[in-house]
Amino acid sequence: MIALGLEGSANKLGVGVILHPSKGGPAQILANVRHTFVSPPGEGFLPKDTAKHHRAWVVRLVRRALTEAGVTVDDVDCLCYTKGPGMGAPLQSVAVSARMLSLLWDKELVGVNHCVGHIEMGREITGAQNPVVLYVSGGNTQVIAYACQRYRIFGEALDIAVGNCLDRFARTLNISNDPAPGYNIEQLAKGGKHLLDLPYTVKGMDCSFSGILASIDVSAARLQQDPTGWKDEVTGQVMTREDLCFSLQETVFAMLVEITERAMAHVGSSQVLIVGGVGCNERLQEMMGMMAKARGGSVYATDERFCIDNGIMIAHAGLLAYRTGLTTPLAHSTCTQRFRTDEVVVKWRA
User: Which of 39, 42, 149, 264 qualifies as a FRET site for 295, CA 20 to 30 Å off?
Assistant: First the structure.
């Protein structure tokens, strides 16, 4: 079976084509193309501008994906699209595009939960069997484990997502959004040496990032007043932009490692799977690896082709659902900004 997937819940528009062999075996990625709406430095991406970008690029990307995959419309069994969660206007643009293609090609639709798409793609690529999942992106921060045909949320952010925290601090420092603000913070953090004491907010299995962002924004304002650097009152060290990025990363990632370890202990798992755009961060993978190694476990992660929002993950998760008989009637092919991971019945897993 072959599925074409459309993803556009935020600033990245992705189209993927995937094949599930009829006799079983690993899924085959036939095409995975993507285009990103990049806003100017110091600015975020507005829903209306992002939606306009998606509408302008979707036909080109679908054509390119089919060409790269070497398949025709007749070969495609179903069309999968991101139903939610995400930003309203971009989601709507993708849903309308999916409906248009469904009517044009006479193909069944499958609405996919964005978060479940990340998880299933991560499991497929890494081979992780039943891991604790850390899902970290610009819009979501969740610690998840599978039980009884649901991906159960054990812990999550109480306010803003960790990726949103990093992105907003990039805006504070006027860091470029190309290729991504979080990536550019990661590169700057590699030059940091001094750790600034920042709020550390973990509440059981949940965490909060708004306080740490407000605190480091104050430090950034002081740095902008004196670009040569200012002295930390606690350590006496001269702080730089690199030190601020380093301090923010170390603190928020330590929080994520803590709640993930607690989930591992609770469910008795020795595997951690990191998915979502922030999962590309090598320092997060390194810190998680140290924790897992101390517990005799292992960490699974993917590169930017699959961590960052993409169409192939929607195609894969949608095709898994389609094979169980699940489809989305045209009248119900809506989108929603709020669609929790644990709302989805995972019929394709025992």
Answer: 149
Q: Write out pLDDT tens, residues 255-302.
A: 999 999 999 999 999 999 999 999 999 999 999 999 999 999 999 999
Q: Which residues pair with 230 in a beta bridge?
A: 239
148 token code pair: 């009884």
| pTM of the full structure | 0.96
CB 201 within 8 A of CB 212: yes
Owner of token pair 């998680």: 288
Q: For residues 310 and 7, what is the distance between their CA atoms, to the nearest angstrom?
A: 6
Contact 99, 83 (CB under 8 A): no
Cα 214 to Cα 85: distance, rounded to the nearest angstrom: 26
What is the signed CA dihedral for 67, 72, 78, 82, rounded to 10 degrees? 20
The kind and range of the H/E element at 249 are: helix 241-267
Q: How far apart are CA 145 and CA 139, in angstroms?
A: 19
- What is the length of the chain? 350
CB contact at 8 A, 152 and 143: no
Strands (E), the chain: 2-7, 12-19, 28-36, 78-84, 108-113, 132-136, 141-147, 150-156, 202-203, 206-207, 230-231, 238-239, 271-275, 298-301
Residue whose token pair is 């899902």: 135
Phi, psi of 270 (to 5 degrees): -110, 5
